[in-house]
From TrEMBL:
Residues 1-22 are annotated as: Disordered. InterPro entries: Calycin, THAP4-like_heme-bd. Residues 17-197 form the THAP4-like heme-binding domain. Gene3D superfamilies: 2.40.128.20. This is THAP4-like heme-binding domain-containing protein. It comes from Mycolicibacterium holsaticum.
Length: 209
């Protein structure tokens, strides 16, 4: 194999195949989470602090006809402070995808509460902040929710961002705009946390162990 062929192969198969998702590969923990939401039992809006674990693992290449996607499967699980030995109060699983040809990042996420969101935005290799946006009814990046939530806490919009820091941490924010039947108005259900990497995977591995 010539040097030129080696470089070409490296460019296609090397770690950067994940594009701007590359920094996420690994396992993460964060203890500074803050959830702002409506508390039904107390009929108030308040903050909940939490500990969180996140895992991002590379997946094999995905092909939709001529569309080629690289990506990660991921999970994020959170426990209220003081309840780390109990069931988590938040659990989500999904995929983060990189469409290099179209310059898009995509977040395909399902929440344990009966919510599914496909969110995305423009992005480029080397971006330090990634945005994921979705709007109910949008034929591309939209939101689905179970019947109870549609009646009692209808999702009107979703925005989220991941920001990569230089000290092997990443921070995220999430904002669900909800129309709450209990209070007769809309509110912003927000979450934010900073997580530190506790285990590395090689970005080029299809199935990290």
């Amino acid at each position: 194999m010539t040097n030129a062929q080696t470089l070409e192969r490296t460019a296609v198969q090397g770690p950067q195949k994940l594009g701007p998702l590359t920094p996420l590969v690994g396992e993460w923990e964060g203890d500074g989470g803050v959830d702002l939401s409506y508390h039904n039992n107390d009929d108030v809006t308040g903050e909940t602090t939490y500990f969180e674990k996140a895992v991002f693992k590379p997946i094999p290449i995905q092909e939709n006809g001529q569309q080629v996607l690289w990506g990660l499967n991921y999970s994020m699980t959170a426990w209220r402070h003081g309840e780390e030995a109990m069931d988590p109060f938040h659990d989500e699983i999904g995929f983060l995808l990189w469409d290099k040809a179209h310059g898009q990042v995509i977040r395909n996420v399902v929440f344990g509460r009966g919510i599914a969101i496909l969110a995305g935005s423009d992005a480029a290799v080397g971006d330090r902040t990634l945005h994921f946006n979705a709007t109910p009814g949008d034929p591309c990046y939209g939101v689905l929710q179970n019947r109870y939530l549609l009646d009692r806490a209808e999702i009107k919009g979703f925005t989220s961002s991941f920001t990569f820091d230089d000290d092997d941490t990443f921070s995220y924010t999430s904002d669900l705009v909800l129309k709450l039947a209990a209070i007769g108005e809309e509110m912003h259900h927000t979450d934010q946390n900073t997580l530190r990497r506790v285990k590395r995977y090689h970005p080029g591995s299809e199935h990290a162990g």
